[in-house]
Design goal:
It is a single chain. By secondary structure, the protein is mainly alpha-helical. The chain folds into 3 domains: 195 residues, no CATH class; 95 residues, no CATH class; 143 residues, no CATH class. The protein has 22 helices and 2 strands. Strands 1-2 form a two-stranded antiparallel sheet. The longest helix has 32 residues. The radius of gyration is 24 Å and the shape is globular. The two termini are 38 Å apart.
Length: 508
């Protein structure tokens, strides 16, 4: 059976009449209502509590207070878990040695999240999708652990030991309790994120996130600094329109194309295989707008408050994508497994890269997928999805390194390659994500059995037949071959720069 939406609610029941009218669970109605309220508060926050008008202390205090109010409205007293998790982690930061603080903080924060997830899933409502309190805790976990590693980088390491992104994000002083709570639980991101770095958040609060222009008088002697602060109005309106479209699409299609129908016995036995593949793609296509809606609305809220400015485009228009969590067109037209993941839940991908992939000495790809599964929750389907994702990633990397160069001779051949890889990527993503939606082991294995585990076997065959050099080996070869290093230097620099260093586009 597919998971059904739970009717229980741990938060306020004030909006129960509206829930009955539109036939949606009250917890989801509370979530949307609180996000719309946060949007209005964001506009007020930007205008009336502007950094030029008030102190950072007031901005931190108000952002935290509003955040806790929204948490109480949505989750009731379960929102105390946010304080407990944050309090325990802050205690570790204060009392543990700086040398090991980041490790202890990571264990305590992630461990507390997993304990809450186990209790919610196996004690209260297994198999239920709801706006539960562990959702915000997942974002808080990202923020706390990111901050712990950034404090460790800034206060215990020399600059030569850090990558360019680590230097940019490093924190050189311990934040106060108010700054810490404001970063974790501010009203703009407490319900749906997205995750951001502590330095970027404090720059927003203090009003130092905008560019400074130097203007000289006619005589060329006096210099005046003018801070340029573009309006987020167009970006917010555009993202709200995207939210409306995504919400309409999701509400129109998700009941017509349930994912669990792909394991229906009569459908599997009677429908030809190509029709099963087509249905699975359409079902996943109908499911994604829910995430598009939630993440785009969260991004719009932050932008409305003035947070998210990321410089200017070539045409001079402001960019408001500093903490954006997805790029919809790049997802839907992704031509590789990695490209899909790079544009889906972007801030979580950055978090996984910073705290795991860049720091794990042994098999960082597998470790990153395992951490992602643990962070998402304790449903067995999550682990089946991420274990499958490891194989998919390795196979896609092998195909790209060994086969793609043969299709770069002409524009036509490259176009054909892109079309084929788009089809393969969409099928692979759907195949991989099915257990994530079905949650339980039985239905997930039933689906894979109906496909005869074909893509699992194909990935295994590809990784055994096609060689792929590790990134460490490629780096060693480039160090031994200076000419090759010069040829590929720009590409390496481009790949190593994070979005949080104001670099949006990445080499594929």
């Amino acid at each position: 059976m597919a998971p059904q939406t739970t009717a229980s609610c741990t938060g306020s029941t004030l909006l129960q009449p509206i829930s009955d009218i539109i036939n949606l669970p009250v917890d989801q109605v509370n979530f949307v209502a609180c996000q719309l309220f946060a949007l209005l508060m964001a506009v007020w926050f930007r205008i009336y509590l502007h950094p030029d008008k008030t102190s950072p202390f007031i901005r931190h205090f108000v952002a935290t207070l509003l955040g806790f109010y929204l948490a109480l409205f949505c989750f009731g007293w379960y929102s105390l878990h946010f304080l407990v998790q944050s309090g325990l982690s802050y205690g570790v930061m204060i009392f543990a040695s700086l040398e090991h603080m980041h490790k202890y903080c990571f264990i305590v924060t992630l461990g507390y999240l997993i304990c809450c997830q186990i209790t919610r899933v196996y004690v209260f409502d297994y198999g239920m999708y709801s706006a539960d309190f562990t959702g915000p805790m997942m974002v808080i976990t990202q923020k706390i652990t990111s901050m712990a590693f950034e404090i460790h980088d800034g206060m215990t390491k020399r600059e030569v030991q850090l990558t360019s992104s680590q230097k940019y994000l490093a924190i050189s002083r311990m934040p106060s309790l108010l700054e810490y709570l404001s970063y974790n639980c501010n009203f703009m991101g407490i319900l749906a994120g997205p995750t951001c770095s502590y330095k970027e958040y404090t720059a927003f609060i203090e009003g130092t996130s905008y560019q400074q222009l130097q203007l000289k008088n006619v005589d060329g002697k006096d210099v005046k600094l003018i801070k340029t602060e573009p309006s987020p109005k167009n970006a917010v309106i555009s993202k709200l329109c995207t939210c409306a479209i995504c919400l309409v699409i999701y509400l129109s299609l998700y009941k017509l194309l349930p994912v669990d129908y792909s394991i229906n016995d009569s459908f599997v036995s009677s429908a030809p295989f190509y029709l099963q593949v087509t249905y699975l793609y359409l079902a996943m296509l109908a499911l994604r707008p829910k995430y598009y809606f939630v993440w785009t609305l969260a991004d719009a809220i932050n932008n409305a408050a003035g947070f998210g400015f990321n410089g200017y485009n070539k045409d001079g228009s402001p960019r408001w994508d500093l903490i954006s969590n997805l790029r919809i067109l790049d997802i839907e037209f992704a031509t590789s497994f990695k490209l899909f993941l790079d544009n889906w839940n972007i801030q979580t991908a950055h978090w996984l890269k910073r705290v795991c992939y860049e720091r794990c000495p042994v098999n960082p790809t597998a470790a990153t997928f395992l951490l992602s599964a643990m962070w998402h929750g304790v449903y067995p389907g999550y682990y089946l999805t991420f274990v499958t994702g490891i194989g998919m990633t390795m196979a896609a990397r092998a195909v790209r390194h060994n086969i793609r160069p043969y299709f770069l001779a002409s524009d036509l051949s490259k176009f054909i390659y892109d079309v084929l890889t788009w089809v393969c990527t969409q099928v692979a993503i759907c195949y991989t994500v099915v257990p994530f939606v079905l949650l339980a082991v039985g239905p997930s294995l039933k689906f894979y059995s109906s496909w005869y585990f074909s893509l699992h076997l194909l990935c295994l065959l590809i990784t055994l037949v096609l060689p792929v050099k590790s990134k460490r080996r490629q780096t060693q070869e480039q160090q031994n071959d200076p000419q090759k290093d010069v040829t590929h230097g720009n590409q390496m620099d481009h790949n190593s720069t994070d979005n949080n260093c104001n670099q949006k586009d990445k080499a594929t």
